[in-house]
Write a structure and sequence with these properties.
single chain, 311 residues, alpha/beta, Rossmann fold, 2 domains, 6-stranded parallel sheet, 3-stranded mixed sheet, 9 strands, globular
């Protein structure tokens, strides 16, 4: 089940994820039906059905999983509750010592090569190579609409004001969101005062992260991408990558939180491997076995290709 814009992509074969899943279901004789999520609530659900929802919203139910692309292209959530900020990943404990370092280093190198060296992110970036001072504070703005999909702890402009007040001698670079509203962009542009150490910029996130002593945001995934640069994060909203970040729930906590974040040494390499290991990669050989295993964990008998070939 998905909303119309995403249903169109599924039907057209845009997603490797659903193409492989549909082929597997066809092999085992399991019928697949597509539904518009706007009308799905009126469906008569059978206990024998399994439901896969492609949505941002928390949607826990029996025989149901939620799926959506991760912040990094090529990875997908398959979660009992929700993707992204509401996913169950945010509730899991992280133990750096339990992560195999050789595998973690390999994951880190692979992700850096794809996203950092390729200057890639969810949205098109400015060409790499901006001349930026080292040790800056990078603020990544958002446009939190609809608001029910995010949980900000500090209002965006209150967060920015608190950072500027606490910046000491570090320059502050504010990056508006590519989809920033005209009203918010106007307010942000009014903060541009280079002579006072405050800059509003459209530079590539990777240039900013590479130069930053810390990234600051409510819950932008750019802070997660910052982990690929070994850049500490100060988060002012709910995320599923808070485990190695510093979190401020009130504006008056931001000054101390900045110092804590900048002075810290988070285990970026183990964390990225641990976080990404909970996601699925539709183009990898283990995609279908891992997908089927999670469905079986929900009590629905979906055999994977290996089991099928052994029958």
């Amino acid at each position: 089940m998905a909303y119309p814009d995403r249903l169109g992509g599924i039907v057209s074969g845009k997603f490797t994820y659903f193409n492989r899943l549909a082929d597997h279901c066809a092999e085992i004789g399991l019928p697949v039906h597509l539904y518009d999520l706007r009308t799905a609530s009126v469906l008569r659900r059978s206990e024998d059905d399994f439901h896969l929802l492609m949505t941002d919203k928390p949607s826990y139910a029996p025989n149901t999983l939620v799926t959506l692309p991760h912040y990094l292209n090529g990875y997908w959530y398959l979660d009992e509750l929700a993707p992204r900020h509401h996913s169950t990943l945010r509730l899991l404990p992280f133990d750096a010592d339990s992560v195999p370092l050789p595998a973690a280093r390999q994951t880190f190198r692979r992700l850096r090569a794809k996203f950092v060296e390729g200057n890639r992110s969810k949205y098109q970036q400015a060409p790499a190579g901006a001349d930026l001072p080292q040790g800056l504070i990078a603020i990544f703005c958002q446009e939190l609409v609809p608001s029910d999909l995010t949980v900000p702890y500090v209002e965006q402009f209150a967060m920015i004001d608190a950072v500027i007040t606490a910046r000491a001698d570090r320059p502050v670079y504010i990056k508006p969101h590519p989809l920033q509203s005209k009203e918010a962009r106007t307010r942000l542009d009014a903060l541009h005062r280079p002579e006072a150490g405050v800059h509003v910029t459209d530079a590539s996130i990777h240039d900013l992260l590479a130069a930053a002593a810390v990234s600051v945001t409510q819950c932008s995934a750019v802070a997660f991408e910052g982990y690929l640069h070994r850049t500490p994060a100060l988060l002012c909203g709910q995320t599923d990558f808070h485990h190695i970040a510093t979190v401020a729930r009130h504006a008056d906590e931001i000054a101390a939180a900045l110092d804590t974040a900048i002075a810290g040494a988070p285990p970026f390499v183990p964390y990225l491997h641990w976080h990404m290991s909970h996601l699925l990669q539709p183009k990898e050989d283990d995609f279908l076995p891992r997908f089927c295993a999670r469905v079986r964990d929900k009590g629905f008998d979906l055999p994977d290709p290996v089991i099928l070939s052994q029958r």
